[in-house]
Amino acid sequence: MGKGPEKKTKNKALHTKLLNRKKAKLQEEKKEKAMRLKALVAKINLQKNSE
What we know:
- Residues 12-43 form a coiled coil.
- By secondary structure, the protein is an all-alpha fold.
- It has one helix spanning 9-50.
- The longest helix is centred in the middle third of the chain and has 42 residues, at 9-50.
- It is rod-shaped, with a radius of gyration of 23 Å.
């Protein structure tokens, strides 16, 4: 019996790499958003306390 068609491992690896990059980017954006919110809340709290 002959071998079946070659698996698409290269394409699959590239796709996985792309998805991982996308996931990492989304996590980084989420962290940055949380940091901005935290800074904003701290700033508002300081303004409230000084009044």
